[in-house]
Design goal:
The chain is mainly alpha-helical and about 170 residues long. It has one domain (about 30-170). Helices cover about 65% and strands about 5% of the residues. The protein has helices at about 5-20, 35-45, 50-80, 105-120, 130-140, 150-170, and strands at about 30, 120-125. Strands 1-2 form a two-stranded antiparallel sheet. Helix 2 packs antiparallel against helix 3 (about 50-80) and helix 2 crosses helix 6. The longest helix is centred in the middle third of the chain and has 32 residues, at about 50-80. The two termini are about 35 Å apart.
């Protein structure tokens, strides 16, 4: 086998792996774990009606599920690195800060917690694509002045929904 065949074979394997990981025709949106709660709060506070409101509720439920997963994973990291009492519960100071046995445990915990916070939460919208289109239309027609963090969250949500729509059109 020459080098070109090896390279093509490796590339094809990578492509197959990517397709298996994502799935053909799967419609997904992604937010960082640390963004899940603020996106959900923002969406719930918007004044949407009818189909747009139902679509928002569906997306919020999916965000909440991912947030629960994130919190559970963060709890596992806490259990692994934080100081524990006699019963095995994670110990905190009076100000609710985690306590650690060593500086190394604290350093590793914060490294792992930050990695997890930056990780993308993948939300499958394949089954509710039509509703996500309604949500995007509702957001685009929103008659509310947004500024600061709300404007940034609005932009991030719209961008994800637009990418979802583009992805559907390409499939």
């Amino acid at each position: 086998m020459d080098d070109k065949t090896e390279m093509k074979s490796g590339t094809i394997k990578d492509l197959i792996k990517d397709i298996q990981n994502k799935g053909v025709g799967e419609m997904i949106i992604e937010f960082k774990n640390q963004e899940l709660q603020i996106v959900g709060i923002f969406l719930r506070e918007l004044g949407l009606k009818g189909k747009e409101s139902r679509a928002r509720t569906l997306l919020c439920k999916r965000l909440e599920d991912k947030l629960k997963d994130y919190i559970a994973e963060l709890g596992e990291i806490q259990k692994e690195y934080a100081k524990k009492d006699d019963v095995g519960n994670v110990m905190t100071s009076e100000g609710s800060a985690l306590l650690f046995e060593t500086e190394e445990d604290e350093r590793v915990y914060y490294t792992e917690a930050n990695r997890l916070a930056e990780e993308e939460a993948v939300i499958d919208c394949t089954e509710v694509m039509a509703k996500m289109k309604s949500l995007l239309a509702g957001l685009e027609n929103l008659d509310v002045e947004l500024k600061g963090n709300d404007a940034a969250i609005y932009d991030a949500v719209c961008e994800q929904l637009e990418n979802l729509q583009t992805e559907e059109e390409e499939n």
